[in-house]
Amino acid sequence: MVEEEFLGGLFFMKRLIGLAAVIVALSLSGSVFAQDLTFELNGKKYEVAPQILYDGYTWESAKVACDEFVNNSKNDWFLPSKEELTAMHEQLYKKGLGGFIGNYVNCWSSTEKDELNAWTWFFVSKDDNKTYDSSICIDVDKSCLRVVRCVRVL
């Protein structure tokens, strides 16, 4: 097996029984493709972390997870606001970008509704092509477990 650095990840090549097969395994921290994961809001350009943190986070632990997140030596990540997740939905998710794997991804926002609740973006589609998008922004109890998608300002 040959292993080389490529686009910040690893590129693997392997020969199988006389047939040359190329297996691409870009370890871009969970990303399948090297996409331009950026969106704009209010004159600022944001970078989206290449992976969704699926471990299940409360609202408080989601904020800490983004504060502690490091990718490509960048450590200025934060939990996006409700408005930033809305822009991510419009500019990435609806175009099939961003690696939102599966049909149901419920991401925390940093925006509180009140003392007990915060807003999440529930990315929902009936199929992987996002032909029926019923995504919605909902408020949930801060103790519920949700996923995290960190962002940073470029």
How is this fold's topology laid out?
Blueprint: E1 2-6, E2 9-16, E3 19-23, E4 38-41, E5 44-48, E6 53-57, H1 59-68, H2 82-91, E7 104-112, E8 117-124, E9 136-141, E10 146-148, E11 151-153
Antiparallel strand pairs: 1-2, 2-3, 4-5, 5-11, 6-10, 7-8, 8-9
Provide a descriptive summary of the structure in words:
The chain has 154 residues and is mostly beta strands. It folds into two domains: 1-34, no CATH class; 36-153, Mannose-Binding Protein A, Chain A (Roll), CATH 3.10.100. The protein is 13% helix and 40% strand. The protein is built from two helices and eleven strands. It has helices at 59-68, 82-91, and strands at residues 2-6, 9-16, 19-23, 38-41, 44-48, 53-57, 104-112, 117-124, 136-141, 146-148, 151-153. A three-stranded antiparallel β-sheet has the order 1-2-3, with no helix packed on it. The protein has a three-stranded antiparallel β-sheet with strand order 4-5-11, covered by helices on one side. It is globular. The model is unreliable at 1-34 (pLDDT under 50).
Q: What is the fold named in CATH at topology level of the largest domain?
A: Mannose-Binding Protein A, Chain A
Structural class: mainly beta
Q: If you average the pLDDT, what whole number results? A: 76
User: Which of globular, elongated, flat, extended, rod-shaped describes the shape?
Assistant: globular
Largest sheet: 3 strands, antiparallel
Strand content: 35-45%
Provide the helix percentage. Answer: 10-25%
The CATH class designation of the largest domain is Alpha Beta
Low-confidence stretches: 1-34
Give me the Rg, rounded. Answer: 17 Å
